[in-house]
Amino acid sequence: MTAYLKSTPTRDGWFGDYGGAMLPPPLEPHFKEIREAYDRISKSAEFIRELRYIRKHFQGRPTPVSHLKNLSDRCGGAQIYAKREDLNHTGAHKLNHCMAEGLLARFMGKTKLMAETGAGQHGVALATAAAYFGMECEIHMGEIDIAKEAPNVTRMKLLGANVVPVSFGGRSLKEAVDSCFQSYLSQADTALFAIGSVVGPHPFPMMVRNFQHVVGVEARDQFLEMTGELPDMVAACVGGGSNAMGIFSGFIDDDVALYGVEPMGTSSRLGEHAATITYGEDGDIHGFRTLVLKDAEGNPAPVHTVASGLDYPGVGPEHAHLHKTGRVTYTSADDRAALKAFFELSRHEGIIPALESAHAVAFAMREASNHPGKSILINLSGRGDKDIDYVTENFGLGDGL
Ligand SMILES: Cc1ncc(COP(=O)(O)O)c(C=O)c1O
C-alpha cells in the first residue's frame, strides 16, 4: 500500500470534505459491523491467502497490459496502452471487489449478497461471487437498464440471482440503489450489501478502492516491465469511480498525470449527461457527501449516457476530493465519441470494449495527437459483449457516426 492509501480516508471515512456515513439509525450497527469486519478480517493472513488464490485460479489474474499499436498509429502522437480488465473473469473489473466482498461476507457468516447494478456488470460479478461462495443473491436493476442490457440479465439469472426490476423514478442506477437500500433494511442481519462502486457510506468507498487496487499494482509493474518506464498519462472512465480508483491508486504517489473521463451524454444540458464532477455541486446522496448533479429543487437530477454503468448523478467521494486537490484532472467524452471509439477499437485492435470503457478509449484517441512521444495507459474496464445488440440495433456498424 502506498503512503497516500494508508493515510486516506480518515478513520471515519472522510476524503477531505467528502465521504462520511450519513445513515438512518437502523442501519448504523450494520455498517459498524462491516467496518469492524473489514479492519479485522481483510488484513488476516487467511483472508489474503484465499483472495490471492481466487484471483489467480478463478478470476484469471493478472490481466495483461496490451500495446494498442494499430490505434496508436491511426491516431498519431502518443502510444496507447490498455490494462485489460475485459479479460478478468465475467468481463469487467467489477469481479475484483465482488469476490473480495463475497469472501468477507463468508468470514462474517452472512448467507446472502445483494446490490444494485447499472450495466449489469456488477450484478453479474456479484451473482458469480454468490454462486462461488454458495450464497443467495439479490440484484436491483432499473427497468431501462434491464431492457438495454438484456444479455447480462440472462447471465445473472443463469448464475442463480433474483433480479428485482425497479420501476419508479428514472428507472435507472440511482433508483436501483434506493430500492436495494430499502430491501437491505429488512435483511441486514443475514445479508451483505455489496455496493457496486467506490460510493455509499464509509467503509465502502475505501474498501472497494482497496479491493480494486490490484489493477493499479499489476498495471504499474507490467508497464515498467514492458517499456522500462512509467506511463506519462493514465486514464479511466468514471461512473461511481471504482475502475478509475483501481488504476489511479497504483500511480497516485508517482509523477504520472491521472485523468478521469466522465460521460457527456448527448449535450451539456442538465438531464442529457452524467458529468457529475464537471457540473455537480456539493451535496449528499445515498448516505455520503460528494459532488451531485442537482435539479432546480436540489434533488439528484436525471442523467443520461449511452453507457448504463456511468448513469449516476453522484460520484465516489475520493474523486470529488482528488478533483479539489487537483491530483486528478477530470474531463469528458460524449456518446458519439464513445461510440466511435467502440467501433474503432473493435475494427482495428480486435477488442470490443464496454461502452463505459469506450469513454476512456475516446479520451486516448482525442489526446494522442496532442502528446507526441508520450504514453497513455487506459483502464479498459470491461468487454462490450453486453452492448453489441443495443449498439448494432441503434447505430448499425457505426458508418453514420
Ligand atoms: C465495464 C464497466 N466499466 C465501468 C463501469 C463504471 O463503474 P465504475 O465507475 O465504478 O468503474 C461499469 C459499471 O457498470 C462497467 O460495467
Walk me through this protein's architecture.
Tetramer of two alpha and two beta chains. GO terms for molecular function: tryptophan synthase activity. Belongs to the TrpB family. The modification N6-(pyridoxal phosphate)lysine is found at residue 94. It catalyses: (1S,2R)-1-C-(indol-3-yl)glycerol 3-phosphate + L-serine = D-glyceraldehyde 3-phosphate + L-tryptophan + H2O. The protein is globular. The protein has 2 domains: 25-56 and 94-204, Rossmann fold (3-Layer(aba) Sandwich); 60-91 and 212-395, Rossmann fold (3-Layer(aba) Sandwich). It is α/β, with parallel strands linked by helices and 401 residues long. The strands form 4 sheets. The chain has a 6-stranded mixed beta sheet with strand order 3-4-14-9-10-13, with helices on both faces. The protein has helices spanning 3-7, 28-41, 45-59, 69-75, 94-108, 121-133, 143-148, 150-158, 173-185, 204-227, 242-248, 276-279, 317-325, 335-349, 355-368, 388-395; strands spanning 14-15, 18-19, 65-67, 79-84, 112-117, 136-142, 162-166, 191-193, 233-237, 257-263, 281-285, 288-292, 328-333, 375-380. Strand 9, helix 11 and strand 10 form a beta-alpha-beta unit. The protein is built from 16 helices and 14 strands. It starts with a helix and ends in a 6-residue tail after the last helix. Helices cover 44% and strands 17% of the residues. Residues 92, 118-119, 121-122, 197, 237-244, 309-310, 354, 356-357, 381-382 line the site of pyridoxal-5'-phosphate (PLP).
